[in-house]
Design goal:
The chain is of the alpha/beta class. Helix content is about 40%, strand content about 20%. It has an 8-stranded mixed sheet with strand order 3-2-1-4-7-6-8-5, with helices on both faces. The radius of gyration is 17 Å and the shape is globular.
Length: about 250
């Protein structure tokens, strides 16, 4: 399929809710990953859409400043209060921007979060997995060590296994063919675990999911996140577990 439909566009989608403290790091990493990708794939259209959901802080201003000198960046402001709906809105916005001349089979969607820093090879590695036949790629995450004490980081390392073939699903590090995404209905409007639901639907439909330990993003190590049942809640549960052991 990929040989008949060469990659024509790479669309990055990043939901955000009040991330003024961390979005600058995300922006730098995404822009660097896009630069690295374009150096190897100069003919592929690339862009990043930040979906600002119910933001009341300076996230919008920070992003607008960056957009002044980088036309690859775009911003969509919504009032959804729902990460699944935000991600889906961002995908629709990105695909509409590409126009009808770009077939979904030639588009790759890369998803991360505004509190996350992706590796420089993030997009090129996803493109390589796509070329090898993957319909979706699930990467891993690592909490920012500057935000965790040593004991909690040790607990996380003991519980989390970032190996090839892993079973972790993170919206902060996830890629999918636009054709496969649309075929299963995209991100459902869930307040949490919308990423898990999407990958489950892809697996049920028979699409190939590559789970890679070579794609590791650094995400916030905070214990109180922007949504329930997210990575922050996972870390908080580990922290409580450690306290009980002590």
């Amino acid at each position: 399929m990929n040989l008949r439909n060469p990659l024509e566009a790479m669309a990055v989608v990043i939901p955000s809710h009040n991330e003024e403290e961390l979005i600058a790091g995300c922006l730098r990493s995404v822009r660097t990953a896009m630069d690295h990708f374009t150096a190897q794939h100069p003919r592929v259209t690339i862009g990043a859409t930040f979906v600002l959901d119910s933001c009341t802080d300076q996230t919008s201003r920070i992003l607008q400043d960056q957009m002044l000198d980088d036309p690859r960046l775009s911003m969509l402001e919504v009032q959804l209060g729902n990460v699944g709906a935000s991600r889906a809105a961002g995908v629709r916005f990105a695909l509409q921007g590409l126009g009808q001349r770009t077939h979904p089979q030639s588009v790759w969607l890369a998803c991360t979060d505004a509190d996350t820093r992706v590796p420089v090879h993030w997009l090129t590695a996803m493109a390589g997995r796509r070329a090898a036949g993957a319909d979706a790629v699930a990467g891993t995450v690592q909490p920012d060590r500057q935000e965790l004490d040593a004991e909690l980081y040790r607990l996380w390392r003991a519980a989390y296994r970032p190996v090839d073939g892993h079973h972790h699903i993170h919206g902060a590090n996830l890629g999918v063919s636009a054709a496969a995404y649309e075929a299963v209905g995209g991100f459902p409007p869930l307040a949490a675990r919308e990423d898990v639901a999407l990958v489950a639907a892809l697996r049920t439909a028979g699409y190939r999911i590559d789970a890679s330990a070579q794609l590791q993003a650094i995400t916030s190590g905070r214990l109180r996140g922007r949504l329930r049942e997210g990575f922050a809640d996972y870390l908080a549960a580990l922290d409580r577990q450690g306290a009980r052991i002590d």
